[in-house]
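Let's do one together. I've listed all components of the complex below, 908 residues spread over two lines.
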Amino acid sequence: MILGIMFLEKIVSVPYSRGQYKFHWEMNSMSFWRDKTLHPYIPEIADEMLRGRVDRREFLRTATLLGMSATAAYGIAGKLTGGEMIPSANAQMLTGVPKGNFGGTLRVSMRVQPMTDPATFDWTEMSNVARQFLEYLFVTGADNITRPYLCRRWAVSRDLKTWTLFLHQGLKWSNGDEFNADDVIFNFKRWLDPRTGSSNQSLFTAMTTSAATGKQGKDGKPLMSTTMAPGAVEKIDDYTVRLHLNRGELALPESLYNYPTAIVHRRFSDEGGDISKNPIGTGAYKLTQFKVGEKAILQKRKDYWGGEPYLDRIVYVDHGDNPGASLAALASNQVDLVYETPVEQIDVIDKIPTAKIFETVTAQTAVARMQVDQKPFTDKRVRTAVRLCQDHDKLLLLAHRGRGIAAEDHHVAPVHPDYAPLPAPAQDYRLAKRLLADAGFAGGLELRLDCRKDPPWEVSLAQALAEMCKPVGIRIKINVMPNAQFSEVWDKTPFGLTAWTHRPLGFMVPNLAYRSGAQWNETHYSNPEYDRILDQASSTLDVKSRKKHMAKLQSILQENAVIAQPFWRSIFAAGNKRVQGYELHPSVYHRLNKVWLA
Amino acid sequence: MGVFILKRLGYMVVTMFAVSGLVFLLLEVSPGTVATKALGAFSTEEQRRLWLEANGYYEPLLTRYFTWLGNVLSGNFGQSIRFKVPVGDILWPRLLNTAILGASAFAVIIPLSLGLGVIAGMREGSKSDRAISITSIVTTSIPEFASAVFFSAVFVFWLKWLPGTSGMAEGFNFKELVLPVMVLVIYDFGYVTRMTRSSMAEVMTTPYIRTAILKGLPRHQVIIRHALRNALIGPFTIIMLQINWLLSGVIVVEFFFAYKGFGALLLEASLNQDIFLIEACAMVAVVVAVVTQTIADIAYTRLNPRIRFA
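Okay, and this is what the predicted structure of the assembly comes out as:
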């Protein structure tokens, strides 16, 4: 602790003026760590890093999470560990020296989906167009570290229930208005209003309250209405907003970079409520043309507050749902970058001389999940038998060409900072057969597994899993459905293969998917013990302690065999070799103001 | 003829009425899912309920149907759920794009297939007839998705002569039309060629052709003056029917080459249960079917005066 405080005395601060950055150390200042808004855990974790108990990455993640500016955190990490003080990606920000070439048009093959209300975005693609001109309070980078963005810094109470957001000052919307606290408050109010229809309402349940409407549903049950809890958002001054949560929430910054949380102008609703028609933003680009299903064109903003972006123009071209079309467009130089490249195309891309592959390991996955209140999955022995049939490494090889990491049937990934290593589950046909026989299925049983048609690796995975289950007598009939139809039954079918996207922290998906009664609890799993430990994990700052909670959580889910989870997959994006500075985000979020063309 | 056209128009209105009612009924099977499509799979039950209420989905089916019908009669096709714009804004440009693609394909298919069909039919059983017939059968047997992959592999990935997609993102580009047209032509010309050939072969065996040959007319005059006009009656109807086929037949080609046409729109609307867009597409399909059939019937009487309107 003392060591950490001693080093924190050597603090970095980065005042900036538009377009030009200065950088200086305040070597002897004690002011920062005495700042009452600095979270008390920061000196502790600095100490942990110094003693080698926490790695540099975790220190950066936690320190920035707790309100320290990214530059300050990088500076301290560099000082403490003697490594590179500032990562190269931030070099330009600090020195003002550009790293790439200015100018040019980046053409990206991606679906151009309707983009009306950012709060109701339900696909990453629509947010990618918007992300070039709308910004978020926080940003989680491709390195899984969350940093401040529209928010200059933030402070959080020890119980993680009170979050104070200090906003940038002097930052302008594209219509000339100044960005301020009213914008942030307006957005929170909209997100939490059920009439908006935003999935953010499920994300910020710690800020909502539910009450009966007095009406009854078709099933005779009283209809409930969920709205923003009184006093959940408080305006301190024009540039400070305080959030009051009804329970501690560690992942609030990460949630505030979830794709439907882009900050729109405070008069968004009054001015039509359609961002594609009235694209006012704080971002580096402005939307100049938008045709759903065809293209979106964005032009560089000269007065962008965060430094001049490299590209003059970004053009998103819609090639439909056919990945072959995107590949053909890349091969014939019609586009420079593809939104996402299916694993099946990797070999072809390697043969195109002008193309390269961007790859990143993620916490994206597909789980063969079983509804624990539907027969025969009510019997844990049946679920366990399905789970034991898996050879995780082989499934990864068969369905995803070995690109990814084998999973362990508990939905926490090794890329998560709070992942606790458990012994790798092994295929065990003998035990699986015995369990089936005990459950009364000595002669085997037939199951139907619903899965969607695209992407094809999910169908391959379903087929490989079905083949692996055959030797014990589990005959799985695969029901491949068009994606649009599957999206209607994904949470209703007794046995389905569901794809889950990447989330930066290990407890985030369990909160959404395995907590009793959670909105996306597709397995209907309910275990008060699991919920209790999940509460503890979700509010434990110390990574070592959190890992202990996570180990229990992981074991419980694995032991209860709610899901058979074969692997975590890598994701890919093909691009022209001219494309530089692009980092493939684990959630495929585009933020292209640091990309340039060689 | 005026009565005939009026009858056809009446027939068209009744068909449109029936089709629109059926489509409405079919999509009614799972109305709750419309809200899921609009708000996404991750919306809450309450949010979906509020959306359905705000968009009038709790009104009785007949009320909604007749409201929609009234709007259509006043030129308002409604709002697309998928594209979140008025249906007309997306339908007409897409229809125009398909018309451009179809016209380009027909500009190749018609002269090519009529020419080859006539050459093959002139001398039934000759080497040229056999060669044309076999080629026609082979090309017609290859589905569009297979020829699209093949042409793409050759002209895009190997020779690098042509662009791989046809989205016209940078404005109209003739080169982007080549591959989709090529696929449509390869798939369709064989069928029209075979029809023309059999029609021509049949005419060539008629007594008046034999008489013309026996009275010493040069062969080309026999073909052009006597055989061709009669031989083209059958293919003409076939070609008009191909316009109908094209409306749905382009789905594969448009999807493969990311061409922004009616087929791709219909596919997307159907997969997303976009009720007003599907209705509008269905109405367009009925109009095109009835109009092309009417034109075929009228032209038939012009080509063959023995046929009269009933």
